[in-house]
């Protein structure tokens, strides 16, 4: 993708995963360092957020796109995937189904995303450790098999959220 006049590297990132896994909440936590309990309807996304990340001496501007409920119907279009250099794929560690569905998401990604797209898998809702239905090892395994970066995180507590986006930015700069 292009550089602006200021020499900033721009990268488009899209967030995918089942409804209710916390995609919008992760983006709001990252963008505004805020969290609203149950305050977001499933059909409300934030559109997108722009964030400039500094990694060592380099800067990258992430334009991160959120879905607006169309993931509920698995009706994300080819156009949405177009030009995305990175994908953030989210499941909920307290929802087994959202993890089983990762396989389907990976299939769709292999069909619709750029071939060399960077993939970050996030197991969200880490604050709900006592309701966990998916082990860390299971998350690591599927990430390894699909060449994804992996982390568990919590949009609610904020744990590992900044770190997750930083690893993504670092990876994007490597390939720029
Ligand atoms: P989306 O449909 O994937 O965009 O998910 P939302 O961001 O709308 O979140 C779905 C629900 O999960 C809301 O009630 C959120 O408050 C809640 N939620 C999101 N992230 C977390 C988290 O890290 N921990 C907990 N406990 N709840 C979360
Ligand atoms: Mg949402």
Automatic annotation (TrEMBL):
<protein>
    <submittedName>
        <fullName>RAB37</fullName>
    </submittedName>
</protein>
<keyword id="KW-0342">GTP-binding</keyword>
<dbReference type="GO" id="GO:0005525">
    <property type="term" value="F:GTP binding"/>
</dbReference>
<dbReference type="GO" id="GO:0003924">
    <property type="term" value="F:GTPase activity"/>
</dbReference>
<keyword id="KW-0547">Nucleotide-binding</keyword>
<comment type="similarity">
    <text>Belongs to the small GTPase superfamily. Rab family.</text>
</comment>
<keyword id="KW-0449">Lipoprotein</keyword>
